[in-house]
Amino acid sequence: MRVLLIQPPYPFSEFPKPSSALMLLGAVLKEEGHEVRGLDLLSTRPTPAKIEDCLQRFQPQVVGTTSVTMNFPEAIRILRHCKRFSPEILTLLGGPHATFMDRPILQEGSAVDIVVRGEGEETLRALIRSLQRKNEWGSIRGISFRRNGTIVRTPSRPLIPDLNALPPPDRSLFPVSRYLALQVPVSILSSRGCPVGCAFCVGSRMMGQRGRFREPRRVVDEIEAALRLGFEEVCIDDDLFSRSRRHVRAICQEILGRRLRFKMHIFSRVDTVDRDLLEWLKEAGCAMICFGLESGSQKILDGVNKGITLGKVRRTIELCRTIGITPFGSFILGLPGETRVTMRETLAFARSLEIPFGFHLLAPFPGTPVRDRAAQYGLKILTNDWSLYDADHAVTENAHLPAHEVERFAQAFFQDLEEKIQAMREATLQGSYRGPFRKEMEKRIAVDFAWRMLSEDGLEKYGTFPLAEAQRNRGVFDPLEPLVDRIGKMVSDPKSLIRSQLERFFQKGWIQCRVEASRIRWQWREDSSGPGPPFPQSRGPQTRLTEMPGPARPMVAKPPLGAWVNFRREGLRPLR
How far apart are alpha carbons 535 and 552 in whole angstroms? Predict the structure, then answer.
């Protein structure tokens, strides 16, 4: 059976990276012998034409996608377009939003044929086997669908007891080169389950509270395979990587035993780390730990069942600083009980820690206690426009704090931050900035350029031109210069920056140059087979690619080191 898995788009501020869930589902389906392809609408400009072209060429029998609440509207639009193009296609939707909103989704339209609830791997395996026999769908646990005008909701499927039974994710489904250009860390899953039931989080309901762990050897095998593709940074995507000291230590020992070198980022809680664990992580390459700190008010922390104290936060942050791991603090504005005073307390507390930190605005996602029992928490939910559930809009309020005041507070912080960032950006471009954020700003400028190139289809629009345009400057063959001139019409960056970034993309093998009859065509390397033999190295900023015109051969793709810094949401604190 031919199955198309589509990665829906979402905003750049949410840190674009390919869906680990879809890559894992693709691997499961390939194990079953099905033909699976991926369509990435995140690292490109999403258009109906691209969807139609893929459907026309691949002729899938099944189209599936996933979404969180924020990009649920985009996922529905994609599936609706697939249905219009080919009504006989069977459409599947999974993810946390669909899991807890399956009935409304199926009631509101015909874009979705089947909702896959909860963990999808074993459910999808069973479903694809039975797709030709609709009378058997009712026996498949973990799905919801329509039958004769009524909605059938089968019993939930038990959580997968042994994650080692799952194959490694199929990273060939999505174009690795594009994400290397964006300097995205590779996502690795080592466990599922979160023991804490925070009122604003859906994690424990989706994946359970009991910890289920993959063998450390398998985890590090997957890391090593990702490094061979060109990644140098790894993000452990577990909800709580540090819940098991034994598991963390075993993974760190496996990494050290293989002498792997990369930067690692994890998610943790301040009450699950100590000096020994942090030292293991540091030795294995951990550069940053994201802690959910949520609020600077102890009363609010207690009200949402966070289970930590402000004193414990300070002690853990200081311990991270001593060990040499950068702690990142994630805060939420608008939690139950929030007031003007507690918002100011949170900002003051965040600044006093002297670490990178970021704010989100509370979004009561389906499946969370703050949504299911909003009145008990003193919250009023203002809208079900899911596109506003992006943590940048206030979609709730309480009796003490109107929504517009939460937004105004956040906007004032962000506006001041944006002005400082813009000033640093301009100084960095001019070569005059020497402050503590220089490396981060240089990386941010490079990432911003890569995102413009991808999201606006820079190479697709401007990368094809007559061969004669590359044969100038005293006869030297230079197919890059015309591309630089053309991209300059799309971005406002200096020509020297455009050239240096495009040269870097080429030398890394992320983009390729081909001569086709009488024209030059630049394109992203769309395959995920890993680096090929090296193309001749650059000999300086004035290098001309005189070894052309044969097809470009990609070389080892290694993005620069350095932790991702999302300046949109972070306080201005240097990374130590």
Answer: 7
- Rounded Cα distance between 326 and 50, Å, is 41
Whether 460 and 50 have beta carbons less than 8 Å apart is answered as no
Residue 219 parent element (H or E): helix 216-229
Strand (E) or helix (H) holding 268: strand 263-268
8 Å CB contact between 242 and 269: yes
**CA distances for 310 relative to 141, 271, 349, 362, 547, angstroms:** 43, 11, 9, 20, 61
Per-residue pLDDT, 534: 35
Distance, in Å, from the CA atom of 182 to the CA atom of 172, rounded to the nearest integer, reads 17
Beta-bridge partner residues of 206: none
Per-residue pLDDT at 449 exceeds 80: yes
Quick check: 532 pLDDT over 70? no
- Region 228-253: mean pLDDT is 96
- Whether the ω angle into residue 549 lies within 30 degrees of 0, i.e. cis, is yes
Provide the CA 141 distance to its chain's centre, in angstroms: 29
Which helix (DSSP H) or strand (DSSP E) does residue 220 occupy?
Answer: helix 216-229
3-state secondary structure 133-191: CHHHHHHCCCEEEEECCEEEECCCCCCCCCHHHCCCCCHHHCCHHHHHHCCCCEEECCE
Average pLDDT, the chain: 88
The structure's pTM equals: 0.89
Q: What letter represents residue 522's amino acid? A: W
Residues 488 and 490: their CA atoms lie apart, in Å, by 5
- The pLDDT score that the predictor gives to residue 14 is 67
pLDDT at 563 (0 to 100):
28
User: 181-196, pLDDT tens digit by residue?
Assistant: 999 999 999 999 999 8
Nearest to 352 by CA among 573, 575, 576: 573
Q: How confident is the model at residue 79 (pLDDT cuts 50, 70, 90)?
A: very high
Is the model's pLDDT at 250 over the cut of 80? yes
Grouping H, G, I as helix, E, B as strand and the rest as coil, residue 256 is helix
Please tell me the predicted confidence (pLDDT) of residue 473.
Answer: 60
Contact 514, 548 (CB under 8 A): no
Tell me the two tokens of residue 535. Answer: 């193309």
Q: Which of 214, 213, 196 is nearest to 205 (CA)?
A: 196
The mean pLDDT of 504-510, rounded to a whole number, is: 95
Return d(Cα 146, Cα 32) in angstroms, integer.
26
pLDDT value, residue 472: 65
DSSP calls for 281-309: HHHHTEEEEEEEEE-S-HHHHHHTT----
Report whether 510 contacts 180 (CB < 8 A).
yes
Q: 323 near 282, Cβ under 8 Å?
A: yes
Residue 237 burial (C-beta neighbours within 10 Å; 0-12, 13-18, 19+)? buried
Class of domain 2-153: alpha beta
